[in-house]
Write a structure and sequence with these properties.
heterodimer; A: 114 residues; mainly beta; seven-stranded mixed beta sheet; 11 strands; 0% helix; 49% strand; globular; B: 110 residues; six-stranded mixed beta sheet
Chain lengths: 114, 110
């Protein structure tokens, strides 16, 4: 069964550094998402992406965040200048794009900002 | 604003029992709901979904019930097994994004 893959599984970075989290969505899916989950809390929406542009973003997704689909398979989340509070699990997801279809999630990247 | 929440943070059951996990949602206009299972160190895994034109849907050992009158959703797991131990989230899909509840941890003891 096709799955969403994310790399790296764990990223440690120093405050103020830039990080790029990478995802390979399911190949025939059209919508791509980033979510995050701070330890012990619920999964929070960050951004959705369709047709090479952001379709919706949350208040969390400020100017420090950006997303990109640099080629036909990868989908990336960049945090320009990381803060301690950016430490969380970051999940990539994709969906076929039909209304009322479930999102398929990767296993996440654990980002630790020190 | 939208909110999706859960009544109980932890549910402990014996292996073989039936489990019921509840969820309250506040957006009465939501028309699609999903249950996800999250095991430690993994991403949310799709279990079952239901559209608002239905009040019940069954899968393999799982049943989702939707009560639109009281904006309530439940997940029933039959003959709970140790492998069912995880955090369960309900979510509502507004097409462009998914809104998750806070989760219920299901603990299954042998």
């Amino acid at each position: 069964e096709p799955e969403v893959t994310q790399t790296p599984s764990h990223q440690v970075t120093q405050m103020g550094q830039e990080v790029i989290l990478r995802c390979v969505p399911i190949s025939n899916h059209l919508y791509f998402y980033w979510y995050r989950q701070i330890l012990g809390q619920k999964v929070e929406f960050l951004v959705s992406f369709y047709n090479n542009e952001i379709s919706e973003k949350s208040e969390i997704f400020d100017d420090q965040f950006s997303v990109e689909r640099p080629d036909g398979s990868n989908f990336t989340l960049k945090i320009r200048s990381t803060k301690l509070e950016d430490s969380a699990m970051y999940f990539c997801a994709s969906s076929p794009g039909r209304e009322n279809s479930p999102l398929h999630f990767g296993n996440g990247t654990r980002l630790t900002v020190t | 604003g939208e909110s999706v929440g859960l009544h109980l943070p932890t549910l402990s059951v014996q292996e073989g029992d039936n489990s019921i996990i509840n969820c309250a949602y506040s957006n009465s206009a939501s028309d699609y709901f999903i249950w996800y299972k999250q095991e430690s160190g993994k991403g949310p895994q799709f279990i079952i979904d239901i559209r608002s034109n239905m009040d019940k849907r069954q899968g393999q050992r799982v049943t989702v019930l939707l009560n639109k009158t009281v904006t309530h959703l439940s997940l029933q797991i039959a003959a709970t097994q140790p492998g069912d131990s995880a955090v369960y989230f309900c979510a509502e899909n507004g097409f462009q994004k998914l809104v998750f509840g806070t989760g219920t941890r299901l603990l299954v003891s042998p």
